Amino acid sequence: MSREDKPTLPKSRIPLDNLAGGPTLEGHPVIGKDGHAHNLNFFNSISLFNHLDAGEIAQVLRICTIENAAAGDVIFTEGDAAESLLILERGEVVVMRRSRDGHVPIAHLGDGSVVGEMALIVGGPRSATIKALAATRFYRLSGRNFDTLRRQRSVVAYKLLRNMLITLGDRHQNVVQRIAEVFARPAVNTEIFERHCRELAERINRVV
Amino acid sequence: MTSPPLDEAIQLLGTSRTFAGLTREDLTPFIQSAELREFQPGETVYRSQDRPAYGLILLSGCIEQTEQIVPGQAISRQTYATGSLFSEAGFVKAWQHQHDCVAIEATRALAIERSQFFHLLNSGNNVAFRILEALMNLYVRKVRDANRDLDQLYSQPESTLLLLRGLVNPGDSATASAKEEG
Hints:
The complex is a heterodimer.
Chain A lengths: L10 E3 L15 E3 L5 E3 H5 L9 H9 L1 E6 L4 E3 L7 E7 L2 E7 L2 E8 L4 E2 L1 H6 L6 E4 L3 E7 H9 L3 H30 L1 H22 L1
Chain B lengths: L5 H9 L9 H9 L2 E5 L4 E3 L7 E7 L2 E5 L8 E4 L5 E2 L13 E4 L3 E7 H9 L3 H30 L1 H12 L1 H12 L1
């Protein structure tokens, strides 16, 4: 069992029979049998669900679990086996990466954020640690459940894949752009990296 | 618009890993939705920063993609075999190319416009689905590689500084390299 599957966070499977109706439900909170309200506007606002209708969103939610994390809970740790995608419904998490300075925060994510698209496709180790900063509720879509959709050549699976691909492509362009920016203004960035090197040397000297 | 030769295209794609196991019924509507593009040896297929309107699948010949993400570091060169996807951004969104791409021998490729690709996906075409899956794996690798390159810039600031100094003053960089080698 991977660390992310530890039963420390309460889980419940959500029956969403009420969601199968279609577009007339859009914009209205839908109450599942567990009493949890799912607002279709919320899912429509997430790029992962672009072009999915109410029935298709329901199909995805049926294979998700919903989990809660308290402030301070580590939801998963860098290096853990990655086997699910998370959709933050509400709350706040910090994304941290290991560096020579310890765990460094690289992003704060809130309502509607999606984490772990790459994990859903290729697995492998988690590339960052996610820790809740406030009470956080999230949906977890496991790789195993998603693979079942893929094997069925479901329209929902291809729509999700397409949306994830667009997110990944945008992310790739963004990172390549950030690399290009470092070298686009070499004189300015030479000063910045000189300062960075000096600070690093001072830190090393203090430790030594 | 030139139509691709159906039987030949089915045979050629059937030999590639991406499309292995697909039937004639899968491949026919896909190939019929494509255009045939031909490139002469040395002809530019696309340039870095171009925004593609279509994705390409290599049918025959050979192309070479070159890129240098970080100035001063090695240029990546890749050649591709039959069935390879290239100009892959064109299948999904008009992301800028990061490569220059040149035909290194007489080359033929299937070109699929983005709207046509989505139409095929909507109709449940298995070839389109295979391409989508292949693109996912490709982009996961691209994002991981780019993240690694970005991490290296900041985690090894001394190397980045040398590269930047080399861009500001190429003469100094050559001297520094000679000193390091000496």
